[in-house]
Design a protein that fits this description.
By secondary structure, the chain is an alpha+beta fold. Helices cover about 40% and strands about 20% of the residues.
């Protein structure tokens, strides 16, 4: 688990949300996984680090692979939330997850 994924999990626990599944394989034939998932709600969560430092998610081939993964997830009926380090650290990410799960955003 990356430091960024651990930070998000800490926020999720802090607001009392159910714990998501880690490294959830959502596709029947590809090896794609979500960093976290709520399978019953078909909600996938991705933590995208190094967005300002030319990390994998911002370089051409990495971005293209992420786009394919997200598109295929949508075809299968998944909603995918993607968060940057700043969104996780500020608390925006956990608030968005609460809203996606139908919570009021107040824990």
């Amino acid at each position: 688990m990356s430091e960024l994924e651990a930070a998000l999990l800490l926020h999720i626990r802090g607001v009392g949300l159910p714990e998501p599944e880690r490294e959830y394989r959502f596709h029947p034939t590809r090896r794609w996984r979500f960093d976290y998932a709520y399978p019953a709600e078909r909600l996938g969560i991705e933590c995208d680090g190094a967005t300002w430092a030319r990390g994998r998610h911002t370089r051409g081939s990495g971005f293209a692979k992420d786009a394919e993964k997200t598109t295929e997830a949508a075809i299968l009926g998944w909603r995918v939330l993607r968060f940057t380090r700043e969104q996780i650290e500020s608390g925006y990410a956990v608030g968005a997850i609460e809203r996606a799960l139908g919570r009021d955003g107040h824990g």
